[in-house]
Amino acid sequence: MPKNLGQRNTNSAERAAIIRLLSEGRSPSKIAEFFNCSRTTVYNIQASYNKTGNFDDAPRSGRPSKMDERSLRHLDRIVKSNRREILGNITTSLNTFLTSPVCTRTVQRTLHNTLQYYARHAVKKPYLKEVHIQNRFTYAKANSRLSLEDFHSVIWTDESSIELGKDSSNPLVWRRPDEKYWKECLLPTFKSGRQSIMVWAGIAYNRRTALIFLDKNERNGEAYTRNILAGPLWDFYLELSEERGWIKVMEDGAPIHTCGTAKNFRSTHLIDVFEHPAQSPDMNPIEHLWYLLKRALSKRLQKPKNLEELKGALLEEWEKIDISIINSLINSMPNRIQALKEAKGGSTKY
Fold this sequence. Notes:
Layout: H1 12-23, H2 28-35, H3 39-52, H4 69-81, H5 87-95, H6 104-114, E1 118-121, E2 123-126, H7 130-143, H8 148-152, E3 154-162, E4 172-175, E5 186-189, E6 197-204, E7 207-208, E8 212-214, H9 221-229, H10 232-244, E9 248-250, H11 255-258, H12 260-268, E10 272-273, H13 286-299, H14 307-320, H15 323-331, H16 333-342
Parallel strand pairs: 2-5, 3-9, 9-10
Antiparallel strand pairs: 1-4, 3-6, 6-7, 6-8
Helix pairs in contact: 1-3, 2-3, 7-16, 9-12, 13-14
């Protein structure tokens, strides 16, 4: 159940719903988690209802709040109209509606305690067009019955760019706890045109390739086919095929992967492909390894000062990643696909 939530205020509709769920035999812990309140709050609502038979607020001492139900609805609309608005501007907009103005601190308390909005960093996720959402949903439904053994028979590959001194700032958005992955609360990410070191790697259950650096002048389909597909990826594919029999290769839809040269190599060498929907790094377990690699790089006491030092540091940190982490990420694929199916192709927590 939620921890350290305290005794947040609930409205009459929420209290009625809580009593209904209790009457249906739902556990107080599950109800508290659903309504983002403490278990004590659930018990108090039940005790109050048993005593009074209604869901009304108890008489309160002290000065009455300036925020009535109508004001709360208006504040809710202001926040939803611009999730990135600063608190001062929210207060100004609200005061144009109120007959008795309120201060910024009152608005902040109301957002937190009553409406359950908090300023949080927006989660960065790839921008999804409607066609991406539809294709992701189709992918989830098509792969929802696959077993762990099926995912153990896939080579998961990817490229990543790594820069020196990259700015990782992230703006705040107003959202409720359960709105973390709502479209308007995300920070869409787009392909970057900045020059950087590009690396490639592949993983499979209990295995990984070496970390390969891609020359900045050879980031095209022919070079990828020659230096990766016909090189370390093909060698890795042969090794695993000999060990496990049936193997598929997952590559995303980047142009270097879908060019005629690459397609011809796969066709000629009878490489089975594990299809991957566009704009879906959350469906590729190796993506989290890039995060771990960059985090380890940022924690090094001696920071790389040039590209050659960066390459050396990356090779060291790549080899330090424990194979159990790789296995855990691959074993998460059924949960990832289930989350994607439940999101109907939208963004997931992965």
